[in-house]
Amino acid sequence: MKPEWIAADWGTSHLRVWAMEGSTPIDHAQSDMGMARVSKGGFEDALLALIEGWLDNAPVDVVACGMVGARQGWVEAPYAAVPTTPVQGVPIRVPATDPRVRAFVVPGLKQVAPPDVMRGEETQIAGFLDTHPNWDGVICLPGTHTKWVQVSANEVVSFRTFMTGELFDLLRGQSVLRHSVSEGWDEAAFSEAVEDTLSKPEQLAARLFSLRAADLLHGQDGSTARARLSGLLIGAELAASRPYWLGQQIAIIGAEGLSAAYAKALQPQGAFVEMADATTSTLAGLNKARNMTRETV
């Protein structure tokens, strides 16, 4: 099985690759060799460890997005400034690679004021817009660092990043709340917490400690505490991002469970929400970038 080209989503924690035939994936592999675990000279070896079986003597294009294009990555792919199309120009060629591969990295996007950056999400946005012609609105990309992105005329106009996912992980795993939060989910508790911080975001710090107190005084279940913690943080994010989503058409691109939580939080606010699969959007965006590499020698 020899692919026509190879798509790569290379983030901080993981590397995911797909053997592609046109726009269709025909095989898939992944590892935990994200940028955080790869030394400066180790990116090619980490990639080859996954794709070696897909290669022969003829060079194949590898098109990657994500943190692999950061300053500490395989090659620095400078940010393109907004407003701009999400995939701006030909991806950056990685020099001096194994002769069996021609590697390219998609640049991220930057916003000068207020200062903000993204890497990887621009590719998902490009893929979504490629399959939704003439779409205008706001795209939410939930994750460790959630992005809210204003899109008009196929351009990213502005965006803001919220560290909601990282805050959730830190509070759940390293704060006093680690003693009160467990696995599981309570849908009603989540919705109630979202409404709480949407209406009173200034109460967030106090509401967070109440999760611990409710455990100590009332034996609150750990799954309820987990859902409340998520709801409090997402509610605070929605309160801050209201100028983005209020009255707008909204698309959510992310993992199924997290995207569903954001949709559940937004729907009572009268928001019109559609959800798109993150992998499908990523591959569509990488395919768009790959078509641009054909302009290179």
Protein described:
There is one protein chain. The protein is of the alpha/beta class. Helices cover 37% and strands 25% of the residues. The chain contains nine helices and 14 strands. The chain has helices at 43-51, 121-131, 164-174, 187-199, 204-218, 222-240, 242-245, 256-266, 278-293; strands spanning 5-10, 15-21, 24-31, 60-66, 80-81, 92-93, 101-105, 109-111, 116-118, 137-141, 146-152, 155-162, 249-254, 272-277. It has a six-stranded mixed beta sheet with strand order 3-2-1-4-7-6, sandwiched between helices. It has a five-stranded mixed beta sheet with strand order 12-11-10-13-14, with helices on both faces. A three-stranded mixed beta sheet has the order 5-8-9, with no helix packed on it. β10 and β11 form a beta hairpin. α2 packs across α9 (278-293). The longest helix is centred in the last third of the chain and has 19 residues, at 222-240. The radius of gyration is 21 Å and the shape is globular. The mean pLDDT is 95.
Topology:
Layout: E1 5-10, E2 15-21, E3 24-31, H1 43-51, E4 60-66, E5 80-81, E6 92-93, E7 101-105, E8 109-111, E9 116-118, H2 121-131, E10 137-141, E11 146-152, E12 155-162, H3 164-174, H4 187-199, H5 204-218, H6 222-240, H7 242-245, E13 249-254, H8 256-266, E14 272-277, H9 278-293
Parallel strand pairs: 1-4, 4-7, 5-8, 10-13, 13-14
Antiparallel strand pairs: 1-2, 2-3, 6-7, 8-9, 10-11, 11-12
Helix pairs in contact: 2-9, 3-6, 4-6, 5-6
